[in-house]
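tool=predict chain=A
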Amino acid sequence: MSSFFVPTVYRIWAEGTQTAENSHHASVGWGGCCIKNCVHSLEFIVQVQTEDSVLLFVVAWTITEIIRYSFYTFSLLNHLPYLIKWARYTLFIILYPMGVSGELLTIYAALPFVRQSGLYSISLPNKYNFSFDYYTFLILVMISYIPLFPQLYFHMLRQRRKVLSHTEEHKKSE
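tool=predict ok
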C-alpha cells in the first residue's frame, strides 16, 4: 500500500465532510483533494522524484498540514493560541502558491514519462469498451488549476480578513 494512500483518503474524507456543510464550497474542497491526490500518484514515476519541484510542494504542504492540524487540535481543546490562528490564516499566503507551483512543475516534469510509458492509461479494445489516457488527464488537471486555485486562494484571504479582524476587535474590547 502506498505511503500516501491513507493520508490521501483521510484528507478526502476530512475536507469533504468539512465542505459538505456549505454546498458553495463543496466542489472546491473536493477539487482540491482530487488535484492533490493526482500529484501523490506521481510517486511511481522514479524519474520525477528527484525534481526540485517535489521538495517545493512537500515542504509547503508539510508546513501547511502541521499548522492546520495544530489549529484543529487547539480549537478542539478550546485553547487556541493567537500565534497558531495567525499562522493558519497568514502563512498560506506564501505556502499555497509555493505548493501549487511545486505540484504543477512536478506534473509537467512527469508528462514525458507518462506519455512514453502509458502509465495508468487504458486503450481500446478491451472487454469494458473503455479507454483512459492519463497523459491527457494530467493536462486537464493542470488546466483545472486556472479556475480552482484563485477561488481557493481568495476564499482563504476573505477568511483571513474575517477571522483575524474579529480577533483584533476582540483584543481591543478587553
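The longest helix spans residues 134-173. Helices lie at 5-20, 23-40, 52-76, 82-88, 92-117, 134-173.
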